[in-house]
User: What shape does this take?
Amino acid sequence: MRSYRNTFRHRTSDQHSDDGQVKFLRSFAPDVIDLLPDIQWDRLLVIRSAPGAGKTSLLRAFDLRTLRAVCGDLKTYSELSERLVNVGAIQNSKPRKLGVRISMRTYFRDLTDLQLESEGTRKLFFCLLDAQIIIEFLRVLIEDVRLSSPTELHRVQLIPKTPHPVWKDRLGGTLGHELWAWSTKMDDSIRSLIDSVLPVSMDGLNEYGHSELYSLKALGDSDIVIDGDSTDLQPLLMIDDGQWLDTSQRQSLLDALVERDLRIARWCTERHEARDTDEIIGDGEPSRCYEVFDLEKVTRDTGSALIQGKRRRKARYYETMLRKVANRRASKPLHDLGDDSDTPFTDYLDSSTATSDDASSASQDDECLAQAIKTISARVIKLTQNKPRYRLWIEEIPYTRTQETAIRWREVEILIKRDMNKPQLHLFEVSLSDEDMKQRSSSTVKDAARLFLYREFKVPYYCGADMVAKLGDHNFDQFLRLCGDLFDEMLTRLILGQNPKVPARKQQQIILQASRRAWTEIPRRRSHGLDIQLVLSRIGALAKKETHRPTAPYAPGVSGVALSMSEYHQLLDPEFRARTQGAQDLLNALGGAIGHNLLYASWDRKCKGEEWMVLYLNRLLGAEYGLPIGLGGWRPVKLEEMCGWLTTPTTTDFPSKTPAGQVPSDNQLISV
Amino acid sequence: MTHRECAMKWNDYYLTQGGQAFKDLWADRGQTPTLVVIGGGFDPRTIQTLSAIASTATAELDIVRLEFSTDIRNKQANALVTNTRNEIERIAHESGTLRNHSYPETTSKRTAGLALSRSFHEAGYLDGHNEMVIDISGLSRWMYFPLIKSMLKLEEQEKWKGDLHVVVCDNPRTDTAIRAEGAETVDPLGGFGFVAPAADVSSYEKLERDMLQKSFVLKVWVPILGEGRIEELESIWGDITPDEVFPVLPFPSLNPRRADDLLLEYREFFFDEIEVETRNFIHASESNPFDLYRSLKMLNARYQDVLEGLGRAEFVLSSHSSKLLSVGALIAGHEFQMQILHVSSTRSWLDLDTDFDQMQSDGILSDIWLTGAPYT
Assistant: This one.
């Protein structure tokens, strides 16, 4: 039987097998490397993002195995190799970097629960990390073509560039098998200690402790020699999942990694949640001495920078990159399923072509538009009865049954209502001209009109390739999931022998389902998820109310709320939180939501003589509430009111609309 | 000898199921003073198991209640907890003594489980007892996995030669009714994180073997499936990205279509996302943990035999199903050195439509006798 698997859902490119490696290389977007800051290999780079933004994939692009694969087939992977050459990871068609990737996921944080004094815990942490770095370094070499068998480790040697290095004794020697023996013994011993289910003695732990990370010196200040020949490989230490470290461990690690005399390249990835909640909310690292690469921030800035014509050399429009990723994923399966047209996936989402392909959908759209034009025009004519002031505006609207006409009617209605709401300035009403219309309207008013048409007449708004890219909201996982849902529909159409174009109405239906799913998943996926969902649903409801006011005062709509900076500082004050009901839950919820890209925070925005922290709802979540896709306007909210959201849930909150969401009231929470 | 030919510790096992059989067993075993470990939370199933033992045991019960974190309970939940605790205290008053073991202050549930197990042994509850019951009905996995593991280790080290019973009032409906918030923290359960034995590098040959074992590792993930756990499965997959996946479906089961329903529920994840081959699905009896244990033994042996001389397979288990099946994973994880992962939630709640009365009366009592008389 023919397989119709959806390539957007494949996660097997994460696997380390050969098959996984090939899939990774096929699906990786080389453009991401363009987003990296100008790499200074001697300085610590901290890569930070919400889960799913692509941190680990970025690190994997610098694995020795990936570099070898790219060097082995420069033609196939030309885009990737070009970028890897540019950043210095490949030189003369050979890998230059030897990536040593360590995950902080397990064990390290457990050390803090061994009840040792803090210095002892720190030393044990460094010792375990040293051991894992050395093991991984040797494992990479074992896997590399130069060592066909692990028993050949004696052929490897680290030749120190300086005489009598301290690390030599601390790490067991300089030969491969000596390093392996020491590191595996330490790793086994410390992990056995941590994982012991029976009482353990802490005596003698001092022999394990490392006061510094000796492996950084060992790998940075030595030549890697195999069979007596020096290699050109330069280690690149990649610490992954830094968010799992305890706060003091994270600080110790950063302190160790920022040392300027280190000669090893080092990167560290972490989720936003690695920082304390008030640091996330505060976005504050005033005294940092390392480079921070904030993936979401960079992708947002890249978009706007391009519009302004800056950084054109280096950065591409983020949405274009996403389109390429999607088209690359879909190309082979579309072809395999009999679509020989070489039409890219994103073209099948193009809203203008999608509506015309499906007969029933096209007829439904036509009826919708007819109804919209009929209703709105009647409303406008009634509204302007005996008011010649608007006659020219109405006369200029074409007599066609198109979406553009419907939008124009709705736009005129908004502008008329705005004009009518103004205080009467003229004794005699002057007829408004087409020029007045142009002056008073804008693309945002047109967008608001489109949004109103969607709300009132279900004319598709959430559709089209650009829209899908924007709904990804700077997160690869979110974007790929959405594409996966749409690709399911394309596959179904191909199986039924139809054109894979997805009608706009169907796209919208799929997108709204995805939005609802994203909402219902929040509690089960995220820590403090219940509170996050509650806060976001209040923001959504408030934004919806403001967006759909008849005069569209914040066109195209409202997509966020704002807290004044003075109240935001109040929220960060532990004493305030201790005495204010709901404040601690609010802080946790905001921290979790920002950390997971469910809210986008923008600080120090000036408005009406005050400074504000603006919180925009994730675009996909906003679709559930019919919010505009761009960063719309925002409305201020008092801190007291926000705290109250957590203490007095109401029936308008999101969970009440979805029984399947199974979200409890506060009094059902238990300790299990 | 190949791995397949190696003897299984629980090849012949002792499993008692059903209310009357359970009581009959404890009418016999309850003639000597017994140490009973229970959970201090809301779960009403704890009352069922304890009252069944207390109603037939003639010797005194020494009950140790493992306390839970108190930071979440309130209102209705608090009333449930109070009700369960009062009932336990009434039973304990009539049948023996009750001691409370405090909740350890740690940074994670994983280390809390480890600390709990260590402090349990340091407290000396075991002194003078040769009959021990661990009732897992009201205990979380992160609590009972390390504790049972510690008892198995003591028995292997011949520091304790008593009879260990793991008892449970199995009620999949209650398990399903408990919902969890947050599926971000994936950790190995205490005692089940460390896979390879400590390296013995006293000779070059041993060093070579160790290097061989650790340098080529095929990661095999065996999730034991239950309903409504997609977030947990996705989290674990993202954490370990295994080379092979062998999902376990509960069959035979009380609901004969349960395995099919689970396949439908997880179809997208297993077939579209991580591309599991259909032949990889394993069936294990819903009500017999030793069936799962046996299947895991065979799977492990097959892989280790094939990889002998090349490296090894590293098995990672995760239990998303009933407590009864979790015990199968536990004993397999212990005997075959498999890692067992667990997704810790930040908070939990009960389904809105939970029938609390039914929860207190439903369930099948099981006694899984793990060490002692049947095995000597």
The domain at 183-344 of chain B is CATH 3.40.50 (Rossmann fold). The first strand of chain B starts at residue 14 and ends at 17. The longest helix of chain B spans residues 75-95. Confidence is low (pLDDT under 50) at residues 197-201 of chain B.
